[in-house]
Predict the 3D structure of the following.
Amino acid sequence: MDENNWDPFDEDEFAEAMQRRTEELYSVKDLPPDDEGLIEGAVLPMRDVVIYPHMVSPLFVGRESTLWAIEEAQSKNQTVLALTQREPSNDNPGPDDFFPIGVEMAVGRLLNMPDGSYSALVQARRRVELIDFTQVEPYLRVRVRPVYESVRVDREIDATMRTAVELFNRCIQLNRSLPEEAHLFALNIEEPGWLADMIATSISPNLKERLKLLAMVDPRKRLESVVSLLAKELDVLELEDEIQSRTKSEVDRTQREFYLREQMKVIQTELGEGDPWMAEIAELRARIESVGLPEEAELRAIKEVSRLTQMPPVSPEVGIIRTYIDWILELPWDKLTEDNLDVGNAAQILDEYHFGLPKAKERILEFIAIKKLRPKKTRQPILCFVGPPGTGKTSLGRSIAVALDRKFVRLSLGGVRDEAEIRGHRRTYIGALPGRILQTMRRAESSNPLFMLDEIDKLGTDFRGDPASALLEVLDPEQNNSFSDHYLELAFDLSRVMFITTANTDATIPPALLDRMEVIEFPGYIEEEKLEISRRFLIPRQLEENGLDDEDIRFSEQALQRIIREYTYEAGVRNLEREIGRVCRKIARLKAEEKPFPTQIASTSIEKFLGPPQFFNLEAEREDEIGVATAVAWTANGGEIMPVEVLLIDGKGNLQLTGQLGEVMQESAQAALSYLKSRAHELGIDPEVFESIDIHLHIPEGAIPKDGPSAGITIASALTSAFTQRKIRRDVAMTGEITLRGRVLPIGGVREKVLAAHRAGVKTVIIPSRNVKDLVDVPKKARNDLDIRPVDHLDEVLEVALLPPEPKAKRPKTATHRKAKRVTPPEDLDL
Ligand code: ADP
């Protein structure tokens, strides 16, 4: 067992320590004789207190037996013998319940405490060793032997004492509860045992340590023990100190910041600035109030601002709310521009920027006139400009805005499939924004702009909702004064907007929308119009854009014609303008490099500027042929001519159709063939031939899908030509639906088709007579150039298109030649 490391509560260890102590005791030289010096006295039982010799301390007296013991000692002027209980909670300890080492004490006055207990001031004198008990009742009395300590101080003890005092001093510096004077007191103690006891009292180790120190009668060992206790204590104190100073510096920093912030607030208040976040919110609120929003919008914006005040500025929701408020602020709620309703001025502006287009211009001037006469009338017509690309729909819209002094905005609806694109997403979606209508309105910066909705014919529909119905709400004068956007959730008034829609065809515009609109046709231009537009608008604009002067270059008429015929193939003038632009750029470069450049652009130099021609006049190269008829078809680009080819081959009477023909066109071919069969006799065709050959019908270009009933008479003509071996005139183009009885029915897009035929250099155009009314929109020049033949029956078509049979018809060099002999061309045709 370690000499210093034993447990006073462990009986065995305790007994062993006592044995050692006895040996120590008897090794001390000035030991008094055995029985002499023994003292007898009352026991002062100590629960958990150890008071070392020389110390003075108040002592709480609770037990009656203790009180008697003290009173008796006082009455006899005796000391008491303080013994520490082994078990602190034992209220009535017997002879076996005490540590055998105690302290002799003098007791001062007994003080009555308010609660009925007593307190006594005691002064400890010396250690005593328990010999035996002399009395148990009514209180304990014992005989003890005082312990004498050696007071010899050698160098080693002296050094230990100094170390102890030094360490003790440092403890005092770190532990505020120790008085400064304790150091001075310790310095003045000359006995090592006393010094040890004094320090032990001051640093108050736990009961176990205190008992051990009490039992250590050798002063040197006791002092060494105390030194090691001091070292431990110092460690703990230093650690505490470090932690404290760290906490303190943290607390200091926070306090400093708090202080600075408070100061900043004071300074800001002095300067009239206040908390920046609150200032920002106040500014926002002021902006909302000053903008003059409609009541509902203002209330909503203010409500959102109040939500902001309850959030820290770093909250992610702040951004979402601010975006929303910004949208409310930036929409042109009641911002109106004043209309210029001067009809004369408008007419002048429209003419200034656009050639031709009389119908459209007239309608617009009417609109302005009515607006002037009935300013309060809110119901505005919605115009729908229908025509091929590049025919001036958008630019006319822009000119109308200029004439009216309105802002101009455009929105393309091409490919819009989702209702949310029109109406926006609800704010619960991440990154939600208003729909395109309100986005465009914000760009307009006024609530009565001219709003062009482009490509309304290309609106899509899918599972995400029908954009057309949302658009209906936009365009419907009954509803659009309170258009609701999912994001904004506030009614927005669109009734003052002038909407103009554009489309390439009205066939694919949703009927409900078409119903609400007034269609104005932009049919496309004939060559003469294109020349005029080029000279008056396109060339001057391109010269200016490329930094050239009017005097710099002149395009000859032939040069422009070549560009129109061989480099562009269109109903509008968009590509024409681009090609003119290309010529201008090339010249601009020559001019910039200070090289000579031509001032006259002749038709012969076009190839130098634009490279080899892109389009050829196919008509000019074609010959009259058997089995090939010319159809005119409507396309989104205006119109085109299209050959329909028929070939007869050995087979079993099948009809094969190629060239990506749609269902309607296939049925149209079936109808034409049926009609042909029914008229075989009149046309001089052997009815049996239909059983022994296959018919292959092809319409190039194979890769482009085609559909519609209007090729009916062309297919019938080609079939008739093939079966009768009569050639078809190459300069005849035709369009018209055919019935099983051979009647020709009207079709759509006549204007574009006639213009396309004119563009292609065709001489004669066959159209259904019921379409003659549509010719009014065709420019006079084209009507005069063309031989337009209205027809009601296929017989009339064949009469115009088919050449008379050649008397000695050679067998055609087609796969049909072997069967051809069976096809006997009639001598005279009854057509
Ligand atoms: P669209 O909207 O029909 O596709 P644009 O309005 O974009 O066609 O017209 C294409 C170009 O042709 C524009 O530069 C336009 O100024 C010009 N243009 C078209 N038609 C005319 C016209 N009748 N007079 C003058 N310029 C025209």
About this structure: The two ends are 141 Å apart (CA to CA).
